[in-house]
Amino acid sequence: MSDHSAFSTPDLADAHTQARSIVLPWRSYGGVARFHGPVVTIKCFEDNSLIKELAGTAGEGRIMLVDGGQSPRRALLGDQIAANAAANGWAGLVIAGAVRDVEVLATIKLGVNALFAGPQKTEKRGEGQREIPIEIGGMAVHPGEYVYVDDNGVLVSDSALL
Question: What is the pLDDT, as a whole number, of residue 1?
Answer without folding.
Answer: 37
